[in-house]
Amino acid sequence: MACSKKEDGNSLxxxxxxxxxxxxxxxxxxxxxxxxxxxxxVGTTQNLTDAFGxxxxxxxxxxxxxxxxxxxxxxxxxxxxxDPIFAxxxxxxxxxxxxxxxxVRDPICTPNEVIGAYDQYDAATDTHLLTFGLQAYGEACxxxxxxxxxxxxxxxxxxxxxxxxxKQDIGYQYKLLKINLATQTVEGTLNLLDQAPLFMxxxxxxxAFDPYTVKVFDFDSFALLxxxxxxxxxxxxxxxxLDPPLANGQILLDEPAAQPSPYLSYPLLLDLDTGETLKGGxxxxxxxxxxxxxxxxxxxxxxxxxxxxxxxxxVVFGFTTEYHKRGVxxxxxxxxxxxxxxxxxxxxxxFIERE
Length: 355
Hints:
Elements: E1 2-3, E2 17-22, E3 32-36, E4 46-47, H1 48-52, E5 59-63, E6 67-74, E7 77-84, E8 91-93, E9 105-109, E10 113-122, E11 127-136, E12 141-147, E13 150-157, E14 160-169, E15 171-180, E16 185-193, E17 198-202, E18 205-209, E19 213-218, E20 224-229, E21 240-241, E22 246-247, E23 250-256, E24 265-271, E25 277-280, H2 282-295, E26 302-309, E27 314-320, E28 326-331, E29 339-342, E30 346-352
Parallel strand pairs: 17-21
Antiparallel strand pairs: 1-29, 2-3, 2-30, 3-4, 5-6, 6-7, 7-8, 9-10, 10-11, 11-12, 13-14, 14-15, 15-16, 17-18, 18-19, 19-20, 22-23, 23-24, 24-25, 26-27, 27-28, 28-29
C-alpha cells in the first residue's frame, strides 16, 4: 500500500527505489526484495531465500550500487548469485572458474563478468598463493596469481578491479593492484609499504585515507597529486575500499550512534576537503522520527536502514512502528516528509537508483 502526498500538490519526480528486507522480526535471516517505482507503485515482494537459498548471513558484495553478488558456501560447493538491484532478475552463476569446493573471496558480479579470488596457503613453505579468477559470462576463466600475498579487499568500478593485497615479511607490506577487466591484465601497482589505507575512487582520481593523511592519486598513472592531513575522523582507521555517495565535493558517510541508542548509525553529509559536517547526524534523524510520529500519526516510529542520493538531495529511510506498521519515508536533509510508502516487510537495506 502506498500513502502518497501527491494529492496535496506534491509534483515531485521520485527515483526508483529497491528495498531489501525480512518478513517479520522472527524471520530476520530471510531476504526479501521489493521494488518501488517513481510513481510509488509497489511491486510484488520476492522472497529470495525461498527462491535461491541464500539469506542475510550469506556473503554480499555490491557493484556500483547496481548489482549485488550473493555468495553461499555449502557442502555441495559454492554458489554465486547475480542480483540486479532494480530488477527481479536474480540468477545462479554455475561453474565459476571450475573451482569445485574452493572457498571464493569477495565474488563480484558486474554487467559483463564475475570476479573472485581464492587464497591457498602452503604450510610447508609458509607461503600464500592468491589467485584472481576473471570470467566473462559464457567465456573461459582467466587466472592472475600473486604469490606470497593475501587479500585484504576488492572493488570493481569503471571497468577495473582494484585489489588491496598484503604480505607478512618483516612486519606487513601492502600494495594496490589495478586490473583492467576488458584485457584481464594488471595495468598498475601502487606499493604502500606498511600502511593499508582506505581507498575511494572519484572520477579520474583515487583517494587514499590513512590515520594521518589523505593522498590523492591520478587513477590512470597512480602519480601522487596531493597530500594533506586527513580531516575526516570517520575515515582515519579503516582499510580497503569505500564507494559512498559523492557529489559536488560532498561525501555521505555512516556516523555510528553513541550507545546506548535506538539507532546503530546516522547519515552524515560532510565536506570532502575539510571534513566539516554539512547536514544529517543524530539530531536530524531524531527530528525526522518526531515528524513521522507527531505529524503523520505513526505510533513510536523507529527509523532504520536508509539510502541517500547526494546529488539530487533524496533521503529514503525505512521505518517500523510499535503497532507493526512498516515502510519507507521519502525525505531530504531538511527532515521534510515528502511521501510515505507502507510495505509488508521490514526494510534492512535500501537503494536509490542513480541517474
